Amino acid sequence: MQILVTGILLSGTYALIALGLTLQYGVARIMNIANGETLVAGCFIAFWLYVSFTINPILGLFVIAPLAFVLNWLIYEVALRPLVRRAKNRGQLEVDSILATFGLMFLLQGLMLLAFGGEYVNYQFLAERFMLFGSAYGLNRVVAFCAAVVIAGALYFFLYHTRQGTAVRAVAADPASANLVAIDVAKTSAMAFALGGALTACGGALLSTFYTFNAAMGIAFTMKALIIVIMGGVGDVRGAVLAALMLGVAETAVASLIDPGLTIAATYALFILVLLVRPQGLFGRRTT
């Protein structure tokens, strides 16, 4: 039970990170290799707000999310929209976006190294015991999970109960058909990319409350987010949440029962197993 609960608590932040990449890749068709750097930036901003101004990291989300949204919108408009315009097909756009965001990854990583250095950083926030099902857990982990659930719930409501959310899902399903029903695909894609960046930054801010981080760890979380997105089915929010839950529990079980050094191996083993059973992902549509 303790392993299960710990894995579920971890999966909350994993889900936010993966939901961000789901919107960027599934809707905007941008394979953002710099997604992990957005997460690390969220960690550092939450740390800076807490240490310098004693702003609660949860309240800091109201600063971090809009800032990340605007920054990712600008990145899309300046660096990525020209790639979208010149791409003749989705395959070319994916290749071009991987190369562009690969360079962006090093740029963002360099700026964070310059600003914060290369040392590992953490801070004490709600570092106290919280009893749940007869076992003690970190209160910061519980609060981070609850905040992640609220954010994911708000995203679900936006996607499935608002007109703009319906447009986002339509573009994810078929951009060409979305154009035929008067949906501004370019504007919707930019908004989805920016929203994805905001979700990832929020995931980073929540992760920072109980995780030790540094400026160079972004690529590890980019790979985890990519694995979750593919496992769940590209562009499907429900699949990303379920895959994040599976990954969080699997990593916790392996770290607790076998060896913490094998968590990455467990991640890839689970990824391969899911793809062998369902190549299109848990909620993905089979290609015809």
UniProtKB/TrEMBL annotation:
<dbReference type="GO" id="GO:0005886">
    <property type="term" value="C:plasma membrane"/>
</dbReference>
<feature type="transmembrane region" description="Helical">
    <location>
        <begin position="57"/>
        <end position="76"/>
    </location>
</feature>
<feature type="transmembrane region" description="Helical">
    <location>
        <begin position="6"/>
        <end position="26"/>
    </location>
</feature>
<keyword id="KW-0029">Amino-acid transport</keyword>
<keyword id="KW-1003">Cell membrane</keyword>
<keyword id="KW-1133">Transmembrane helix</keyword>
<comment type="similarity">
    <text>Belongs to the binding-protein-dependent transport system permease family. LivHM subfamily.</text>
</comment>
<protein>
    <submittedName>
        <fullName>Branched-chain amino acid ABC transporter permease</fullName>
    </submittedName>
</protein>
<dbReference type="InterPro" id="IPR001851">
    <property type="entry name" value="ABC_transp_permease"/>
</dbReference>
<dbReference type="GO" id="GO:0022857">
    <property type="term" value="F:transmembrane transporter activity"/>
</dbReference>
<keyword id="KW-0813">Transport</keyword>
<feature type="transmembrane region" description="Helical">
    <location>
        <begin position="138"/>
        <end position="159"/>
    </location>
</feature>
<keyword id="KW-0812">Transmembrane</keyword>
<dbReference type="GO" id="GO:0006865">
    <property type="term" value="P:amino acid transport"/>
</dbReference>
<dbReference type="Pfam" id="PF02653">
    <property type="entry name" value="BPD_transp_2"/>
</dbReference>
<feature type="transmembrane region" description="Helical">
    <location>
        <begin position="33"/>
        <end position="51"/>
    </location>
</feature>
<keyword id="KW-0472">Membrane</keyword>
<dbReference type="InterPro" id="IPR052157">
    <property type="entry name" value="BCAA_transport_permease"/>
</dbReference>
<feature type="transmembrane region" description="Helical">
    <location>
        <begin position="253"/>
        <end position="277"/>
    </location>
</feature>
<feature type="transmembrane region" description="Helical">
    <location>
        <begin position="192"/>
        <end position="213"/>
    </location>
</feature>
<feature type="transmembrane region" description="Helical">
    <location>
        <begin position="97"/>
        <end position="118"/>
    </location>
</feature>
<feature type="transmembrane region" description="Helical">
    <location>
        <begin position="225"/>
        <end position="247"/>
    </location>
</feature>
